[in-house]
Amino acid sequence: IQALCAMILIIINRSTLAIDISSLTLDLGLGEKLSTDPEALESASHDYGHIVTKTPTAVLKPAFTDDIATLIVSAYNHSTPFSIAAKGCGHSVRGQAMVNNGVVISMTSLKNGVIVSGNSSSGFVADVGSEQLWIDVLEATLKHGLAPVSWTDYLHITVGGTLSNAGISGQTFRFGPQISNVYEIDVITGKGQFLTCTAKNNSELFHAVLGGLGQFGIITRARIPLEPAPQRVKWVRMLYSDFSAFTRDQERLISINGRKDDKAVDYVEGSLMMGSSENWRSSFFDPANYSIIISLITTHGIIYSLEVVKYYNDQTRFTVDEELQLMLKGLNYIPGLMFEKDVSYINFLNRVQAGEEELRSQGLWEVPHPWLNLFIPKSQIENFNDGVFRNIVLKRNITSGLVLVYPMNRNKWDDRMSAVIPDEDVFYTVGFLRASGFDNWKVFDDQNREILKFCEEARIEVKQYLPHHTTKEDWMKHFGPKWKAFVERKSMFDPKSILSPGQGIFNSN
Ligand code: FAD
Q: How many CA atoms lie within 13 A of 13 on its CB side?
């Protein structure tokens, strides 16, 4: 009987909402922008993860920022407030940008663009619509010879989506995550209030929203500092069989004297190479070296690839090689196994695009992605290597996909923001970027659970990046000492829990 009642309630709620959506369209003047077209609903009901499906009642395709405020105000004042999820590109993997029985806002319908302003004495900035993809920001700013300094590996994701998480890549150790590189944001709160905020004005909202998983408001514009863009990059990969040597060298490279340190490299990442050559074969390695790499993998099980970049331009092109050699001097990679490339800055930043195109052409892009992204304190990274890389990942007979490992400096993050990181000066990010078939993603998910269980038992204080938790207890543990402020900010800015329910923090709609 209980189950039946629950079902009836869901049906009543859904039909109530359906009626409201059509009257909303009339009342609010949103017209065809608020769509119940099956194609729009279908596209809003899945994401890059292809693991979760949720069907909204309608999709808003806003033409103006005001359309978003109008919708939120009506949800807020509604007798049964309905849920709203901003969706950037939907490159989340666990339904974070989805909603059942509510409205998905397709942010990329906005066309607020990128406006560059400033001068060389006060500095340059870009005012960027949150719907913009990072590739759009790059292309628009490069026209002025300028660029932001902090990036993600992949550029076909929205500014609003990454600022709701953190936005990390190999530049983070030096320049901080993308959330540390924002001067000002426009936000529409869960009450429908439009506010411009900075670290000084409306600072509570500013810090709440950055890394806030979409819980406090919808970002519509971000002001991002720009610097003169480099023209080209020297891009180097070195191979290690010894994990301690690999992490020691990574940590040496990220220990710098501030972001202007011209004796520092500009980018540090790392990855695992194991299993068959399909997992690691890339244009980076000279095929003449394949057999030696394969024999090293056979001997050691895992080879670690350290990736470093130094930017340069016309003025520094004659000195960059020497500078780079100095920076890399004394590193303990396997002698002879250093590989080098020289590419344009844009090709380097947009490097994942070629991989995407290839996967798309093979029908392997729109498949389940049971990803797991973790932050791990430096003091525990050896334990993690032994317990997870060697004892779990290497031993199981499933393709592990790309596994990234690289360190960052805590002092480049702002603790007042909602983003959560380990409490150590240096911590690593490890990304298990898995792709699976539609019928076997659970096998990968089981391994993710095994990894998290191992960390818990070994008392490794991991924090999930792009987090996915299913219980309130796990969310409380995730936020730790920040939980109280997170809840207070929620009641301040989205008291009716309207926004981003797909994160599953305050409701599970
Ligand atoms: P969505 O998935 O659409 O949304 C994410 C969350 O943010 C949702 O909760 C949504 O409701 C909320 N949201 C979206 N827009 C707004 C807004 N304007 N205001 C408030 N809330 C909003 N991340 C990194 O940090 N570094 C990487 O190198 C990196 N590489 C990636 C590579 C690939 C191939 C993919 C698929 C993802 C990668 N990511 C990376 C993860 C990516 O940053 C997140 O998935 C991000 O959320 C994607 O942005 P999106 O625009 O698709 O957001």
A: 15
Sheet containing strand 303-312, strands side by side: 338-344, 232-240, 303-312, 267-273, 402-409, 426-433, 372-377, 463-465
Residue 72 in domain: yes
Report yes or no: 308 and 267 within 8 Å, Cβ to Cβ. yes
333 DSSP assignment: P
Is 156 annotated as catalytic?
Answer: no
Q: Return the CATH number at 121.
A: 3.30.465.10
Domain extent, residue 30, equals 2-108+492-503
| pLDDT 10s digits, 2-14 | 544 443 443 344 4
Quick check: CB of 56 below 6 Å from ligand 1? no
Check if 165 has its Cβ closer than 6 Å to any atom of ligand 1: yes
Q: Which residue out of 186, 266, 269, 494 is catalytically annotated?
A: 269
Say if ligand 1 is within 6 A of residue 170 CB.
Answer: no
Q: Which atom of ligand 1 is nearest to the CA of 356?
A: 34
Q: Is 153 a catalytic residue?
A: yes
**Do residue 102 and residue 135 come from a single domain?**
no
As a whole number of angstroms, the distance between CA 274 and CA 373 comes to: 19
User: CB 327: neighbour CB atoms within 10 A?
Assistant: 17
Assigned domain for 217 exists:
yes
ipTM over 0.85: yes
Q: Of 127, 139, 153, 450, which is the active-site residue?
A: 153
Q: What is the pLDDT of residues 121-162, one digit of tens each?
A: 999 999 999 999 999 999 999 999 999 999 999 999 999 999
Claim to verify: residue 244 and residue 284 sit in the same structural domain: yes
